[in-house]
Amino acid sequence: MTQIRTTRRIAIAALTAATMIGAAACGSDDNSSDNAGSSGNLKNDCSLVLSTATSVLTGKSKFEYTGKNDDLLVDDDTLKNATVYAPLVKDSDLKSLIEQSGTNNTKFNDAVKAKDTAARDQAFADQKQVWQQVKDKCDSSFDSKLKSAVTSFDKQFSEGITAPKSTPTTAPTTTPTAPVETSTKTEAPKPVKLTAPGTSLGFGEPAAFTFADKKNVKATYTFTVGKPEEAKDSDIKKFKEDVRKQIGRLYYVRGVLKPTPETAKLDFEQKPDLLYAHPKFDITTSDGSDSGPLIAFGSFEPCKDGSDDGSGNREFCSLFVLTNKTATISSVKLTEVQDDNELNFTWK
Q1: Nearest-10 Cα torsion for 28, 33, 34, 35
Q2: Greater pLDDT, 298 or 143
Q3: What pLDDT is attached to residue 15?
Q4: Is residue 4 within 8 Å of 10, Cβ to Cβ?
Q5: Which pLDDT score, from 0 to 100, does residue 322 have?
Q6: Domains delineated in the chain
Q7: Can you tell me the distance from the alpha carbon of 159 to that of 71, in angstroms, rounded to the nearest whole number?
Q8: pLDDT at 267 exceeding the cut of 80
Q9: pTM metric for this prediction
Q10: Tell me, what's the pLDDT at 5?
Q11: Between β-strands 280-285 and 229-230, what pairing exists: parallel, antiparallel or unpaired?
């Protein structure tokens, strides 16, 4: 149930994808049909199961680059997702599949820790079977962007887990000539000066800090917050009426996490995993009126987080509700990028 706390902030918590976008997905509004609700529920269910069924692929990609056995492990937070998400899944078939995927992830991790390759590969194969069933069940709910990811998932599951390919080296068979001196020295990028906690910046200016993932791999990154964007009326109409009644104005707060030049030069295994990044913001309104985050399960297309784009950057978007129709967001404070990684930077 959506509630407003009569304090300086609003708590609008745990809306499902069906509540947010299920009706709009079929072009209807408050008087949406049962089919529209079912479509929204299926999309939400599929997104929850998908994240669990494909989680073994993250470690597979790392392992095939580094060759480190522990890189195969599904991280502890992801491992819990099956238990956390299962009660939220409405479809009985998908509920069974998310439970199976959770069991497979646990078996996979146990085999990796025991260095039992046969058991590891069997658990991976079992997860592949779950993935196939999820794909068959959810195909109609995948948008074009997700269909492209599905093709990648298929390829990775089909390949199985392979060790990194090493480049063989052999002794030279010819007599080497006298060495010719050449200048191969390249300047290492200068370390970026870290931004002091409590610093105020203009929208679009970067703050530099040290980011550490849950495996305590650390490196320097910058975070930039852009000027908050007000949502279009057409976006707000995607919400159910009971949610719309609480919205005076809706804003998108977007941020970008980017490696510094010195971090960009690091090897893959020396960089923290950006999947652990979940920034949290506090906002201040122009007139001091009530405001708060709008939190939802599922995906809201106009404002959603992006994945690592291959360059090491990651984009984020958060929804904020203002109760006063004449208020604006005057400042945004970044309080953390992940748990136990407290920050204090403000953009105005």
Answers
A1: -60
A2: 143
A3: 36
A4: yes
A5: 93
A6: 33-159 (no CATH), 200-347 (2.60.40)
A7: 18
A8: yes
A9: 0.52
A10: 33
A11: unpaired
Q: Looking up tokens 């194969």, which residue turns up?
A: 125
Residue-by-residue DSSP string for 196-222 = PTT-EE-TT-EEEEEEE-TT--EEEEE
Cα–Cα distances (Å) from 294 to 230, 288, 345, in that order, read: 14, 18, 21
Tell which residue, 152, 153, 165, has the closest CA to residue 49: 153
The residue among 333, 234, 341, 233 whose CA lies nearest residue 291 is: 333
Q: 340 vs 104, 212, 214, 277, 312, CA distance in Å? A: 30, 9, 9, 11, 22
Residue 341 has pLDDT above 80, yes or no: no
Phi, psi (degrees; rounded to nearest 5) at 27? 80, 10
d(CA 104, CA 126): 7
Comparing 224 with 85, the larger pLDDT belongs to 224
Give me Rg for the CA atoms of the chain: 24
CA atoms of 277 and 269, how far apart (whole Å): 17
Give, as one character, the DSSP assignment of residue 9: B
Q: Is 271 helix (H, G, I), strand (E, B) or coil?
A: coil
pLDDT at position 175, please? 47
- What residues contact residue 335 under an 8 Å CB cut-off, 6+ apart? 280, 281, 282, 342, 343, 344
Question: Per residue in 269-310, pLDDT tens?
Answer: 788 888 778 899 999 999 998 888 886 555 688 888 776 544
Query: CB–CB of 133/97 below 8 Å?
Result: yes
